[in-house]
Structure prediction request, 540 residues.
Amino acid sequence: MRDATLEKLWRTLLESRQVLFGLFAGVAAAALLMIMARPVLDHVPLYDELLHVLAARGLNETGEPQIADGYYYRGELYTRLAASVMEHRGDTVVSARLPSLVAGAALVLLLAVWISRLAGFFAGAAAALFLCAVPTTLEMAVFARFYSLHALIVLAMAVVLFAALSRERKRWQQIGLIVAALALALPAYHLQDTTLIAVGALAAGVLGVLIHDHWPAVRDFIVRRPVLTAVGLIVILGGGAAIVVKVGLFALLRQAPGWVSWAADRPYEYLVRFADNLPLLWPLFPLAIVLALRGERRLTIFCAMFMLSALFVHSIAAAKSMRYIYYVFPAFCAILGCGISGALQLLKVNASPTREEGAGASIRPMMAFGWLALVVVAFATSHEGQRVAKAALGHSKPAEVLSYAVEADWQPAVQTLKPLVASADRVVTSNAMKALYYFGRYEYELNVSIVDETDTRAEFGTDERTGMQAIGTPASITKVIDLPGSTVVILEQETIGRPTGVPSEAVAAIAARCTTVPLANDMGLVAWTCHEPHVTSTTG
Prediction:
């Protein structure tokens, strides 16, 4: 009994040391992310960000997430966090981004501590560093949206569920941890309905670990009853697929907003994105799984099943964007970290001199350090490593590290357009959020993808987020221009000619009836002033 107590105490001390080292690594990685984020935190605001910014203003002014004549309730938890920061640190987009930045830093910190405790300091530190190297991490950290916070909550769910799988825990402790994980699923679902996929993927991870833990019994059952096993799998998979289709989940998966519909039928899209964004780390992933399985088998199975299950479902889904799957990246980086650690452990074992070889073989342990140095050099000279280094040193411009940094900047055009907007009877724009942010008004949004998001999903339907109307055809913009009074039209050049943006025919109709406002070409904007013709028509 005494020996068992001492052994348990020693194990606790070791775990405490690993947690302490992991905390150190996590703080360092979180600080690295903060340093990387600082030069690009004040980038040009995006449409989705301004939804939260404007709704946060509404919260601070009226107590409701109001935007113009509408309300924006999606991800209200993030909106309220942004509103609180904006109230205390200033009504700016940068303030609204701070909750996301803090969540991103906390995500890196939690990953480092979790993996360090389970797989050792080096694995945790490597996992945290790799997560900082993922481009989406920095992008989401300086994006006033809920993706970093969602990833943090999902990782917390993973940590709690994996803790529940511990063989040393009592049944009531396991039940309590499972209940805690389900409780965390509620705020995660509030932020993102894709949490349903995350929960299913986490269940797959739990199932994988349970099969591993009871593999002798599972194997014996399969050997003794192969037909029953095959029939059971068919029934489970077929029944599950039927339920998914019957309740409409498959139809929901196949829905996509217009701006991402181009990738709807590209199930390989994420594989391409991973290869483009992580040209070193992604090809090493299969090898990392093999190496990680040599050491932290249960953790690797859990993370791999979780990540691959989620990635599979998201690949089937029509809507595809790296931000949608960001919550799987911590598991991806955990496997990479455990794989690197497993490789070094393998080298250490193989390089250790035997008693027969004598002191002359003592040089062989240096091989492990040599391989470690090689890994460090390989990462430092890789695309991922150089991107991290340049960002950390402040040598990167937003366009070099943020995929969305090419967004049109309206600020230089405000001085020219503001008096025109103030005197116009109506404003038409391709970006309602920027029009509200910079000018405080708009009446019609000329954007095909927004029409599909209105209450009627038809021309002149109402966008319930703002209470204003959306249009997308030449006939509709002609009706608006022909209304009595004057019209100002402001369009972003990147939306012109796109099937989900502003049709070229609509621009031609504007140009034929209106006068161009002189703006510099590098602003990314085109604008017109329009006056009522001799014969007018109405929108009906």
Remarks:
- The mean pLDDT is 87.
